Amino acid sequence: MRVLFASLASVGHTYPLIPLAIAARDAGYEVHFAAGEDVHAPLAANGLRPFRPADSFYEIYAEDLEPELARLKPDLVVHEWGLPGAAVAAARAGIPGIWHGFGRMIPEGIGFDLPTRNTEAPGRPHVDICPPSLQDKHFVATEERLVLRPVPYSAPAALPAGTSPRGSKPLIYLTLGTAFGTAELLGTAIEGLATLDARVVVAAGRVRPEQLGDLPGNVTVQTWSPQADLLPYVDVVVHHGGSGTTLGALGVGAPQLFLPQGADQFANADAVSAAGAGLCLLPDEVSAEAVAEHVRELLPRHGHTGHHEAARTIAEEIARMPSPDEVARQLPDYAKRA
Predict the structure, then answer these.
(1) DSSP assignment, residue 301?
(2) Is residue 34's pLDDT more than 70?
(3) Cα–Cα dist 106/93, whole Å
(4) Residue 18 and residue 153 in contact, taking contact as beta carbons nearer than 8 Å
(5) What Å distances lie between residue 43 and 9, 10, 22, 34, 297, CA to CA?
């Protein structure tokens, strides 16, 4: 069987698809991956045959993919939520397709077309990597879902110094992702976290480390950290609320402090906070003092265990979800659909 995966050319949209694509490859299927060149390196490293349709760099439109569908003749197209053009192209070609989610069903008004309302590719099932207890209830009740355990993916890299094995002091991980971080917000968060008796690892992302000035001795800043490898050692995650970081932290049972800035981040913060596994500071509430106070409340070693226990409950739920290998074995059933 030949399977074509397709995603926007960004870490947040491509990486959630990689575990299932690898499992499909391991199951003996011929796997190809349509995406812009910015994400080709990790795809090629895993034998996923990446290619860039037409002149696309980030987005892929139906017209970009249609010639490639005629060339490859895949039996199934797995297209992520941010790429409705791939769903439309597959539907026009009469090829079965599956939407692949990257977290909770995206809310309206954040710049993406809702896949559940795509009139050119209606009724397609969804690979759903969000734990059911946190997923949008209307989505769960009305859509066909193929539940898949969220498996964090990071390109191989060395862990920051002092993160493994666990030290005597708690480890706090701070990231604002690749699209929303600013030096001002990152600096404010670092200022607050540095006052705690903890080790702080910062993934600066789009912010250049030199923009942050002199740093306290308990703070380590890198442009990028291998998040999937780092998270098992982390006691608290402070972040923007991106779906990948949210699910990665939940998967290891780490409480979270959300500093949401846009897109689906506010919805993610609301869901995790309502479940008791995290706290949230809205943009007009953020200060160094507030960050320190909220993280202190989340640290289980400071006598607060409720958030940690709620996060562990969700981690256990995630562990019970079907693995990529299990879901990959079901893909031929979906390829048979007209």
Answers:
(1) G
(2) yes
(3) 27
(4) yes
(5) 11, 12, 9, 10, 39
Looking at CATH, the fold of the domain delimited by 2-150+321-335 is given as Rossmann fold (3.40.50)
Topology alike, domains 2-150+321-335 and 171-319: yes
- Sketch the domain layout of the chain as residue ranges: 2-150+321-335, 171-319
On whether the CB atoms of residues 206 and 179 are closer than 8 A, the answer is yes
The 10 Å CB-count burial string (b at 16+, else e) for 196-216 is bebbbbbbbbebeeeebeeee
CA distance 1 to 78: 13
pLDDT grade, residue 263 (50/70/90)? Answer: confident
Amino acid found at 209 = P
Q: What is the pLDDT of residue 168?
A: 77
pLDDT in tens, 295-331: 999 997 766 789 999 999 999 999 999 999 999 999 9
Rounded distance, CA 96 to CA 312, Å?
37
Q: Which residue has the tokens 């929303």?
A: 180
Q: What percent of the chain has pLDDT over 70?
A: 96
**62: exposed, middle or buried (C-beta count within 10 Å: 0-12, 13-18, 19+)?**
buried
Four-point Cα dihedral 60, 2, 46, 39, nearest 10: 0
In whole angstroms, give the CA distance from residue 77 to residue 253: 33
Residue 53 DSSP code: -
**Is the CA virtual torsion 245, 118, 111, 275 positive or negative?**
negative
Q: What is the architecture, at CATH level 2, of domain 171-319?
A: 3-Layer(aba) Sandwich (3.40)
- One DSSP character per residue, 186-239 reads HHHHHHHHTTSSSEEEEE-TTS-GGGG-S--TTEEEES---HHHHGGG-SEEEE
In whole angstroms, give the CA distance from residue 254 to residue 318.
13
Q: What pLDDT, in 10s, does the model give residues 76-118? A: 999 999 999 999 999 999 999 999 999 999 988 777 889 999 9
